[in-house]
Amino acid sequence: MQHEQMDFEIQLILGSCYYGCADAGEVLSTVERIAEGDFESWYGEWYGTAARLEGIAGTCASAGNDISARQAYLRAACYYAACLSMIDGTDDPSRRVPTWKKHMACFDAFCARLNPPAEKVEIPYEGTPMPGYLFKPAGSGGPFAIVIFNNGSDGPTVAMWSSGVAAALERGYAALVFDGPGQNALLWLHEVPFRYDWEKVITPVVDFLAARPDVDPARIALSGISQGGYWILRALAFEHRIAAGIADPGVMDVSTAIVGRYPPEMLKLVDDGKKEEFDNMMTEGLKYMDKAMRQTVEWRMKPYGTESFYEWIKMSRQYNARDVIGQIECPMFVADPDDEQFWPGQPREVYDALNCPKTIVRFAREEGANWHCEPKARSLYDQRMFDWLATVMPS
């Protein structure tokens, strides 16, 4: 597609085919029906495909065909999740939570049919427990080495299956995914926003895992995808019980993806503390932005818990690891994809600033592994990352 955001989302969905989150024919036939740049069309076509797959899954489950049901539920979860990425630009954004719940119901049904089934967990966190899933590799044993997979700013829960969990299980690692502040359930159901000091999130996660007899507390790794590439750096600077860290990609300063859209004269208003003037200018400017840009701004602001453009920028500038990155002690893997569109140059900056044992790996355009989070090359990413992890934290 010519529409940049839609095209990238399609790449993400196609890339997830490798681990069963989608099927190429289902994806391409759905995309053929979507009108270019039309968010309502995007939502409707993906919803229709998701509902069809959910129906297939139910039929298979009723017949006792659990493998077929499991596979169809996973794809249905992925397609319901696809609806959400453009929903702010549709005629009825209030469909977000009901659609998100459909995505989660299908993912739950998938997880229940794994062997062994994934365990739904609640991790104590301030006033609102963080929901998650703990996956264990097939066969008896333990305590297991485990990888915590930290989602990004807007990734659906189902995406974590194809962004590390499936590959971890194949290699004998356990895996944990969870919704932190500003992510999925904590955002949509409890309105808990992002926070920059992610060590306050990861330390309770490590406490939770270290108390379990089926987890080896000396073999806990932390992986962050997308904006998680910042969060894990921040957490690792303070939480030293973790044996290895993975940033995909390395993100030093989250705010550059936001402030890079604004001319210097507008940012000076923020620097000078002129909140009302900046917010008024942005409110007026949004009226003249194209629908795609308005949708992006609205989508990106929500997890920060503010409706003020001024506060959004001020908050985002706190998400900067430069002052703490030197405190990281564990071995680090930093992914550096060609054509990184959100934080170009930052993986190398992260690598250069680390004082711990470190590895940076380029993912090249010639390999089909370019763009943010290597959307079309997850198997290649997993091969390189897990081969590295085996050298510092064997399963």
Please give a handful of descriptors for the protein shown.
single chain; 395 residues; alpha/beta; de novo design (two linked rop proteins); Rossmann fold; 3 domains; 8-stranded mixed sheet; 16 helices; 13% strand
Description:
The protein is of the alpha/beta class. The protein has three domains: 4-111, Up-down Bundle (de novo design (two linked rop proteins)); 116-254 and 319-392, Rossmann fold (3-Layer(aba) Sandwich); 256-316, no CATH class. Helices cover 47% and strands 13% of the residues. The protein has 16 helices and eight strands. Strands 1-2-4-3-5-6-7-8 form an eight-stranded mixed sheet, sandwiched between helices. α9 (228-236) links the parallel β5 (215-225) and β6 (244-248). α3 packs antiparallel against α4, α6 packs across α16 (378-392) and α8 packs across α9. It is globular and about 60 Å long. The model has no long low-confidence stretch (mean pLDDT 97).
Q: Characterize the biggest β-sheet.
A: 8 strands, mixed
Give helix and strand order, one letter per element, not per position: HHHHHEEEHEHHEHEHHHHHEHEH
Q: What fraction, in percent, of the residue positions are helical?
A: 40-55%
Number of continuous helical runs: 16
Could you name the CATH homologous superfamily of the largest domain?
A: Alpha/Beta hydrolase fold, catalytic domain
Share of β-strand residues: 5-15%
Any idea what the shape is? globular
Count all strands and give the number.
8
